[in-house]
Amino acid sequence: MTDDIKSTICSKAWNYPIINLANNELTMCCHTVHQRVQDNEIENLGVDIFTKFQPIQETKFDLLKGIKSDSCSYCWRLEEKNIGSSRTGFDDFARYVASTNYFNTYDKREVANKLSTLTIDEKFQMSKNLVAPKNIEIFVGNHCDLKCVYCNEWFSSQWMVEKKKYDEIDQNWKRNDGLTQESSSLETVWWDWFENHIYDKPDIIAFLGGEPLLMNKLYSHIDRILNKYNSFNLGRPIWISIVSNFNTPPAYFDKFMKLIPKILETPWVHLDLSVSIESLGDKTEFIRTGAKWDRIEKNIRQLLSAVAAMENRGKFSFNIMSALNALAIPDLPNFYRFIVDIQREYDIAVNVRGSQVVYPNWLQPSILSESFSENVDEAIEILSANKLPEKKYRFGPWLHYISHLQEVKKAILDPDKNLQNRREFVWYIRLLEERRGINFRKTFPELVDFFNMCYRL
Hints:
The protein contains 20 helices and eleven strands. The protein is of the alpha/beta class and 457 residues long. The relative contact order is 0.09.
């Protein structure tokens, strides 16, 4: 403990609630562990469950006291290696608190001074009573058609099936898949919280899975949100955000395409769509088992072609969201050439976002030999030479992403390699080949020498 708020604070603990409506779970930001909420806790706290749920409230209190909470270990691990993390820092937190009027009419400078001198009781009260969610993420369920190598049974029903097949998970263990229309107890209080308390606060309401486009709940949730904003003059933009693998079969994709005009025609509501990929062709089909690259590319092109012809296309934002991992790094230049090509062809700015994989350990880019940093350099050159003016990008400016790639490069160049992670790389690649009938050497010839080196360990 340092008792220094500046060393630990992060606004995401307050402004980034993540709600798993299918399985009664809460967390804060996308890098912390989902915490199961019991029905009696929901009954006792009601709508306050989203801000005063004990595990989350305790983490906020720790961050205000200068304690590196275990909940935030993802960022601490990166920072220990001198790699940039997702933590927002003190200045951002001061701006955020000033925007909420938590300290009445204090400006940002006055808020910053106040935050630096908080008493322990004031820190405790702020951990419970600062309520101003800006970016809300909703997990619809874990139903998914893919088994991405860096995912798990919590977020993919296909992973759950595979683990049960090999007796690596309790046969009775299950996750709600988001296909039914039944409401969980958390879902009931969520709608109360949203419709009656915080509907005018968020800037973004995001939907994730599983694979959201395959789940009925996505469409009913969005309909209900649109109904709220149709009856309320918000007076500023709010973004509906959806993250999809875009491996969507035609019948489901047509259903989704019909939803897009409905979103864009709702006053003040904009659509932020992210396609989750980080590679092309057979490499995508290996990394994301079950994916069909031709279908993904067709869906991307169909979407961009349709949006390019819409009068209200200014209310639409398109993103490529990547989980950069060791398997994707060798072909990064070709991947970004594809992004440049579709941006140019459809005259739509393609935001680029994402993070590097930290877990599972054997997929961290940092396990790679230093020579693979050259692939990252080439990718940076491609983005630098083809970026549009920064004002064209809403949620994934290329200059910001280039900085992220430089952090990935730094991780690859770190000489302190974890040999156990490299040994596990060999073990898990062989396991994937055996279980899924996929061919590593054929798909990733650029990584064969690296694999052999790891094997010799």
